[in-house]
Every structure is written in C-alpha cells, then in structure tokens.
Amino acid sequence: MRGHHGHRDAHGERAMPQRNLRLPPNYRRLAYAALIAVWATGALWLLLHYFAARQGAFGSEPHPFEAWSLRLHGLAAFVTLFLAGLLWGVHVRPGLFGPRRRTSGIVLLALLGWLAATGYLLYYASDDGMRDLARLAHWLVGLAAALPFLVHSLRGRAERKSAEGDRRD
User: For residues 42 and 39, what is the distance between their CA atoms, to the nearest angstrom?
Assistant: First the structure.
C-alpha cells in the first residue's frame, strides 16, 4: 500500500498531502500587521496627496506628512514582499496543491505580483505618462486588494471552525 507521498495528481506529478495550512500565530500576526501597514500607508498617501494639499506662497504644496507616508508605505511593502517569500514554503506552495481556497490564493498572488510590478514602475519609470498610468493602476488595485485578502482569510477561518465542529460531533 502506498502512502500519501506516492500518489500522483491528474497530470502525473506527485501530489502533496493535504495538511493544515494555518500559519503559526507569530507569522500570522506579522503578516496581518504588514498587510494592514502597507494598505493603511498607501491609503494615507492617497488622502494626503489628493485631498490635503495646501496653498503655499508659490501655489499648491504637498501635505508635510505626504513624503513620510510614502516612505512608510515603501518600508511596509518591502516587509510584505519579504514575508511573502517566507510564507511561500509553509503556506502558499502547499496551498496550491490543495482544493480549498486555491482560487482566492492565486488571485492574491496575482495581486501581489501586480502591485510589486507597478510599484517598481513608480520608482524606476522615467516617463511621466508611464508613471501616471502605473500610479493609477497601483492605487486602484491596492485599495481593492483588501477585499480578496479578507475573503481568503475569513473563508479559512470559517473552514477551520467548521472542521472543529465536525470533530466534536
């Protein structure tokens, strides 16, 4: 009789055994903190940039905290990308082989890739038109990304609670 490691998927590749993909509490707290920080600092920059400009002696001037909100956003983005690398082996890759929440996980990976690419363009693109397009694409997707993350996270929590209820019966 073959164990879990001997099973093959529909494509003939070795299937990974299904396991608990819940992150350890410290990783989970750090991941949530980084994601909240990157989203909140990005939203703060948007508010300051588009709604808090001040009239100065020579015309419109940025809010004094606008540059700092962008610096904090960049720092939170680096932490988020670092954590994404750490989580790849313990949560993301094993989750890609499981049937539950695979679609929402792939959506989150695509969003992270999009935000990393448009963030890169914001930093390195020299053409103003390209930067304006990247800025719009970055903040529209960035603001919206909170919803798929919440769906993915809350569905996981609901599945765990349901499984715990089933074990008690």
Answer: 5
Q: Domain map of the chain by residue range?
A: 23-97, 99-169
Query: 45 near 90, Cβ under 8 Å?
Result: no
Closest CA to 107 of 157, 154, 141, 73: 141
- Cα distance between the two ends of the chain: 30
Whole-number Å distance between alpha carbons of 54 and 79: 31
Name the helix (H) or strand (E) containing 115: helix 102-124
DSSP letter, residue 61: E
β partners of residue 59:
56
Q: Which amino acid is at 103?
A: T
Entry pTM: 0.79
pLDDT in tens, 87-117: 888 888 888 887 777 888 899 999 999 999 9
